[in-house]
Amino acid sequence: MSDGDSPHGAAGAAPAAARDGAGERVVVGMSGGVDSSVAAWLLKQRGFDVVGLFMKNWEGDDDDEYCSSRQDWIDAASAADVVGVDIEAVNFASEYRDRVFAEFLREYSAGRTPNPDVLCNAEIKFKAFLDHAMTLGAARIATGHYAQLRRAVEGARMQLLRGADPDKDQSYFLHRLTQTQLARTLFPVGHLRKREVREIARRIGLPNAAKKDSTGICFIGERPFREFLGRYLPTRPGPIETDAGTVVGEHVGLAFYTLGQRKGIGIGGTRGGSGEPWFVARKDLARNVLVVVQGHDHPWLLSHGLVAGQAHWIAGEPPPDDGRLSARTRYRQRDARCALHVTSASEFELGFEQPQWAVTPGQSAVLYRDEVCLGGGVIGSAR
Fold first, then answer.
1. Which CATH fold topology does 234-296 show?
2. Any residues with CB less than 8 A from the CB of 222 and at least 6 apart, and which?
């Protein structure tokens, strides 16, 4: 059974038949947001022994106007009080710095654009957090992610499914989780839509019912990204060239740009033959040149395939290509029909039926069969 199978509905109330917790201890990662707060309430309604855990994972500039950890802790504690559960704060800043942020900086230094949320989930939320929860006597952990779980008939393996709300589905960020991690996890709001979650929050009087969703870097918050990255990576200016080789400006360092970027390039007033907007199309690391093109659908921005490494398959092995596979090469993207060719235990290639826009090294290519997330890898190159 999926942990979203209990019929809470929009009202969120769990009928007697859905009280399946039986006193089992579950530690809920409470971030201060509405999703994890409602997740804790839903689990308590199901009869679980719920304990809240607030993770502090960033230090150094915690008094910065963009870092909201103190307010998030207040919100999480206030929500826990309404839900009626104990909550504690735990500091994973060292683990985050070593396991996530160091890799984040290495990838940017190499000219790629990493997705720290993917690594953060695998290394912090479902590893360091899970380990800590076990010391508290928990059998499982829970988060406010919009995803669902199902035990497959064959082999009793866990399947990761998309969240019921297509606009909030977060399975993309969870594709590196293992069978062990998934078997010890609950996603209590995965079967709900965001509006239903907010309705529940308002009805039970949660103080964060209308709190804005976070869109910043995992655990770092919302801040001017170039300024933040500049604290840790040196700037190395160089020329900005067009696809014809014409120099049209100067960049501050290749690490500070990503493929498909339109805003913040610094050549907004430059006009070419077409008069269309400029987009970042390539990074020439050898020459330290940023290459830009005009027009959203310029051929240099379109790719028919990709090569990905660091492959991870949720079922423990690559999926068969049965003609029903699709993939996303970035979070906010429609699924693209594709063909899979596994080249080694750690690498695979994808070929797309339709060319994909701004396939970016460092981002994740995540595969699906219908509603099931199969796994994925880190994009190494597009073709």
1. SH3 type barrels. (2.30.30)
2. 66, 214, 215, 216
Q: What span, in angstroms and rounded, lies between the C-alpha atoms of 242 and 292?
A: 5
CATH architecture of 301-382: Beta Barrel (2.40)
Q: What is the pLDDT of residues 19-36, one digit of tens each?
A: 787 889 999 999 999 999
Q: What's the CA gap between 315 and 50, in Å, rounded?
A: 29
In tens, the pLDDT along 241-263 reads 999 999 999 999 999 999 999 99
Using the structure block, give the residue that is written with the tokens 């009080």. 81
338: annotated active-site residue: no
Q: Domain-by-domain residue ranges, the chain?
A: 16-204, 234-296, 301-382
48: helix, strand or coil: coil
User: Dihedral (C-alpha) 274, 280, 282, 287: value to the nearest 10 degrees?
Assistant: 100
- The CA distance from 304 to 356, in Å, is 6
Residue whose tokens read 């501050």: 252
pTM value is: 0.90
How far is it, in rounded angstroms, from Cα 176 to Cα 375? 6
The structure tokens listed for 163 are 């969240």
Q: Decide if 218 is catalytic.
A: yes
